[in-house]
Structures are given as C-alpha cells and as structure tokens.
Amino acid sequence: MSIMNIKKKFVGAAIAAAILAISCSGTAAAAGVIYAPGVNVPGQTDPVGPGPGSSADSNSDSSGTNTPGGSAVGQDTAGSDANTGDSIQSGEQTTTPGDQTSSADDIEALKLQSLKEQYSIFKTNDPNIVVSRGRTIDISKAMIALTYDDGPRTDVGARLMNVFEQYGQRTTFFMVGNRVPSRADEVRRMAADGHEVANHTYDHVYLNKVGAETIHNQVNACNDIIEQTCGIRPRIMRLPGGNKNSTVLANINMPIILWNIDTRDWSHRNTQTTIDSIIGKVKDGDIVLMHELYEPTAAASEYVVPQLVSQGFQLVTVSELAELKGKTLAGGGVYYSL
Q1: For 46-76, what is each residue's pLDDT tens digit?
Q2: Domain limits, the chain
C-alpha cells in the first residue's frame, strides 16, 4: 500500500471523527492573556509584536527536571524485549502487531497502523529498524527534534509539512488552541502526515502570571480543541516564552518540553541566521525551537531539513525522541533535550 493511500485513509478517519465546536468561553479574557507575535486575535489582523519572552530560567526548576544540554530525568524504558516482535509501548498504548517480518508488504502495513496509533513504535525483525508515524527509523543513527511554536499558520505550515514529507521526516507543532478552529484542515494534515500535535495553551498565556484555575483552563482547552479537530489528544506541552514558576509546575500534569537550541527566529526573522543557528550546531538528542509564524523560518527549514538528512540526522517528534532514547516523560517534568 502506498504512503499516499495510507494518508488518505487516515485523513478520512480523522475528518469523520472531528468535531469543530468547543466551549471555552471566558478563557480568551482571562487575566494575563498575552498573544504570541503574529497570533491572530479574532476580528483583527495579525499584529507584529515583541518576541515570545525570555527562555526559562533553568535554576528555577524543581528537582526532577533536567538542565540545558543534560539528560532528561525520568525512568528509563527499554520497551519490550527485542525478541518478542511486539511494539515498543509508549504511554497508554499496548498495541502488539503480532508476528512481523521485514517484507515490504508488512512494513507498509505497520506504517498504516502506526499512523492510526501515533504514540506506539513498532519493532521489525531488524533490531535497528522501527516503524513509527508512517515511516521507518534507524535507532542506531542520530536523532533530533525540530519543533515549531505558535501555529497553526497555514501558509508557513504547508511549506514545513511539504519539506518534511519530501524527505520522510517528522516534527512537533506546539499549537495555540484559539488558532485551531479556523485552520482545521492544516491541523488534520499534521496528524495525517504523522507529525506530533502538541499544546501551547489556548490563548498563548504566560502561565507564570496567572493562577491555578487559569492554568488548568488554558491547558485543558487547548488539548480539547486539538483532539476535537484531528482526533489526537496532545501528550506534551510547551510554556509560552518558557516562563514558569512553582505554581505552573504544580498545576501542569503534562511533560513540559522546552529546548536547548533557540534559533531566535522570532527576533531576527532572517533565513540565514536561522540556518546558521542549526547547521553545525545540533547533536543527537537536541530539541530545536522555531516558530510556525514566519516566512523566513519556512525558507530556513526548506534548507535545513535536507541538509540535516544528508548529514545522517533523523528528524523525529519529541515523543519519539524520548521513547527511542529510553526516557520517560513525566507529568510536570521539564525537559530541554533528550
């Protein structure tokens, strides 16, 4: 079965399951709401504003988190035994595809299954090759996670997904919930293409400036609208600006994904500067921060993706990176790299 047919089947299932209504009244007016640069306020044009805020202060983290450049803290999970032929279990998934071989037909069947069960990683008879999110990954090679905040923005997102599709790679989109309903087709394509859909709050609120109730509302509403749109509920989130305090850490029961390479694309909005911040800088296990708002970021990605692939890197989602590095992402834990 061709990957195109796989995608068509998955899209059809996702659309059938999609519910585009959401009841989140009051969240947009919550105290401390700060819109991301370029994020569309309903009824307004996209403003050009300041950057997303300072990155997180690693010294303010509670115990049980990791520091930039360090290993994520959590229990190692080696998955099921290599001789079982079963899936590597991730999160709540317990899928076991049964007897597997490395034939082309079986690999294609696993690709289809992995698009339907996107938090599972499936083994093959080759101990170095797994199937995840519609393609194969060689776990003996270096892996990094390119990530994009503040979307969806359809024109930029389409360019990003096109280049990732062309080179058989995946990424993670940390989305602002209030942007999702008007860009539902883009979000469904993210899921259909096997990218990870993730939480960036509903209104891009700086959560260190609000109380527990607003934190819960912002996180839950974003998860709800993404799931209602594409059928997949996010399992990871990113704090707007990376800003956190003890109240934030105590009231978020999702893994908090930050970054150890910041392209600062929101500030300079220059294609070559973004390229230079990645090429020659990244290493195995890195998490790179970019934004799905800027045309120069799309242009940089169109260069960076094939360059990284040619250098032997595999571009994976954050959840894949954690799973394949044997790391458990804990609710409330803060991770800069894996």
Answers
A1: 332 333 433 333 333 333 333 333 333 223 3
A2: 87-138, 141-335
Alpha carbon of 228 to those of 43, 89, 170, 233: distances in Å?
A: 23, 24, 22, 8
Task: State the CATH class of domain 141-335.
Answer: alpha beta
The whole-model pTM stands at 0.75
pLDDT in the model for residue 102 = 60
CB 38 within 8 A of CB 153: yes
- Checking phi first, is residue 150 left (phi over 0); if not, alpha (psi -120 to 50) or beta? left
Tokens 């597997």, residue? 100
Alpha-carbon span 215 to 228, nearest angstrom: 20
Cα–Cα distance measured from residue 332 to residue 249, given in angstroms and rounded to the nearest whole number: 6
Distance, in Å, from the CA atom of 39 to the CA atom of 61, rounded to the nearest integer, reads 28
Residues in CB range of 170: below 8 A, 6 or more apart: 133, 135, 164, 193, 194, 195, 196, 315, 316, 317, 320
Average pLDDT over residues 280-291: 98
